[in-house]
Amino acid sequence: MAYDQQHPHEFEPPVGGVQLNHTAVYASDRHLSAEFLAAILGLEVGAPFGPFLPVDLGNGVTLDYYEKRDEPIQSQHYAFLVPDERFDAVISRLEVVGVTYYADPGHTEPGRINRLFGGRGAYFGDPDGHNMEVMTRPYARPWNS
Predict the structure, then answer these.
(1) How far apart are CA 29 and CA 93, in angstroms?
(2) Rounded to a whole number, what is the largest CA-CA distance in the chain?
(3) Alpha carbon of residue 16 to chain centroid
(4) CB 3.0 to 4.6 Å from 43: which of 6, 7, 38, 121, for a disulfide?
(5) How far apart are CA 26 and CA 70, in angstroms?
(6) Percentage of the chain surpassing pLDDT 70?
(7) Distance between the two ends of the chain, CA-based, in angstroms?
(8) What is the pLDDT of residues 74-130, one digit of tens each?
(9) Cα–Cα distance measured from residue 55 to residue 47, given in angstroms and rounded to the nearest whole number
(10) Long-range contacts (CB closer than 8 Å, 24 or more residues apart) made by 110-119
(11) What's the CA gap between 72 and 69, in Å, rounded?
(12) Cα 20 from chain centroid?
């Protein structure tokens, strides 16, 4: 059951623990940044929700773009797990719009992808300098490998 402002006592928390629901992404132009990411990932931009412009990632999480013009945007890192069969399309969309992708987070290997953990991955900057990452395999962490 979804949250109902008129009947908040009827809200049911998620089963199985804590889940990320949404996060705000600061942008100098929320429309430009949301449309950019949605186009690259093959997603849609949702209807505005107050000051936010959401991009639904399809796993119950939204990136809520929030326009912030009174101070510089601090670069953040966002990583997206994409199906292997969609990875080439993401890279192609970056090439079509003239955005350089890199094999590494420091952006020193332009036009290359990585093959970490048996998958494929790449990094690219968004219009505000956020360091975006697409990968086909999640990273193996010491506590879950």
Answers:
(1) 21
(2) 53
(3) 24
(4) 38
(5) 11
(6) 88
(7) 35
(8) 999 999 999 999 999 999 999 999 999 999 999 999 999 999 999 999 999 999 999
(9) 9
(10) 119/84
(11) 7
(12) 13
Q: Which residues pair with 139 in a beta bridge?
A: none
Q: How many CA atoms lie within 13 A of 72 on its CB side?
A: 5
Beta carbons of 68 and 75 less than 8 angstroms apart: no
Q: What are phi and psi of 102, to 5 degrees?
A: -135, 155
Closest CA to 73 of 134, 26, 20, 109: 26
Between CA 33 and CA 67 the distance in angstroms is 10
Location of structure tokens 């109902």: 4
Q: List b or e across 73-97, with b for residues whose CB sees 16 or more CB atoms inside 10 angstroms.
A: beeeeeebebeeeebeebbeebeee
Name the nearest CA neighbour of 80 among 56, 51, 45.
56
Radius of gyration of the chain (CA): 17
119 to each of 27, 62, 132, how far by Cα in Å? 30, 24, 17
What is the three-class DSSP state of 101?
strand
Higher pLDDT, 88 or 8: 88
